[in-house]
Amino acid sequence: MTEHLTTQHLTVVKHPLVQHKLTKMRERGTSTAKFRQLLREISLLIGYEVTRNLPMTTTDIDTPLEEMEAPILKGKKLALISILRAGNGLLDGVLELIPSARVGFVGLYRDEETLQPVQYYFKVPKELEQRVVIAVDPMLATGNSSVAAIDLLKKAGAKDIRFLCLLAAPEGIKRMKEAHPDVPIITAAVDRQLSEIGYILPGLGDAGDRMFGTK
Ligand code: URA
Q1: 160 near 133, Cβ under 8 Å?
Q2: How far is the CA of 83 from the centre of ligand 1 (A)?
Q3: Structure confidence by residue, pLDDT tens digits, 56-108
Q4: Handedness of CA 183, 188, 192, 194 (dihedral sign)
Q5: β-strand pairing of 79-83 with 102-110
Q6: Fold of 4-53+77-212
Q7: 144 phi and psi, to 5 degrees?
Q8: 93 with 44: CB under 8 angstroms?
Q9: Which helix (H) or strand (E) holds 121?
Q10: Among 84, 139, 191, 204, residue to substitute to test ligand 1 (most atoms within 8 Å of Cβ)
């Protein structure tokens, strides 16, 4: 049986395949191609967890043998929101799992003077208030950009939001819990701490650079 560490606010996916793949991703020597492949594979597994308790209903269908009342997902298509740019790496895998999902993007950069996140792009599906919204960003570090992204999604009407990441720092989890206690976090691991410049330790480095080969 799969064991997870689950509280109402935080789920750590302890599945052996997730943990094994994450270790490979952390390793310094892992190539860009391999990192991307592992990220896609992990996205499928943690995507499975983030969708575990989606609302369901039933529909009447005919199998080749008889009629039945069969379970299907309830409500409007899900909205997947990638927090740019590293969110795109998680997005690809989760989209494979939920191909009919609608997709949005939130772009934020950090103002070097105020250190606060500033929005540079925001495009999300319509009727967000009627959809389950899954925001994806591999690294929950300080939590500043995640909190700002969720603020924007709530302003756009989102009510049922989940946050999916690969690695989380205790500082980021605390910040998210204070700002958005209604948004559950699903992650593959909680690491020790943040470095002085906001990197997750031991972490995996800059997720964007590692998945796009920009360093
Ligand atoms: N973003 C990253 O890509 N890596 C970290 O360690 C922290 C934030």
Answers
A1: yes
A2: 13
A3: 999 999 999 999 999 999 999 999 999 999 999 999 999 999 999 999 999 99
A4: negative
A5: parallel
A6: Rossmann fold (3.40.50)
A7: -60, -50
A8: yes
A9: strand 117-123
A10: 139
Q: How many residues does the chain have?
A: 215
**Residue in the block written with tokens 């570090």:** 141
Q: Is the CB of 207 under 6 A from ligand 1?
A: yes
- Model confidence, pTM: 0.94
Instruction: Collect all residues with Cβ–Cβ distance below 8 Å to 101 and sequence separation of at least 6.
Output: 77, 78, 79, 80, 94, 95, 134
Integer Cα distance of 115 and 57 in angstroms: 45
* Residue nearest to ligand 1 atom 7, measured at CA: 199
Sheet holding 79-83, edge to edge: 4-6, 10-13, 185-187, 160-164, 132-136, 79-83, 102-110, 117-123
Domain boundaries, the chain: 4-53+77-212
- DSSP conformation class of 113: T
For 207, the 3-state DSSP assignment is helix
Whether residue 179 contacts residue 150, with contact meaning beta carbons closer than 8 Å, is answered with yes
Inter-axis angle of helices 32-50 and 16-26, to 10 degrees?
150
User: The tokens of 172 are what?
Assistant: 């980021």
Tens-digit pLDDT profile for residues 11-60: 999 999 999 999 999 999 999 999 999 999 999 999 999 999 999 999 99
In the chain the first and final C-alpha atoms are separated, in Å, by 39
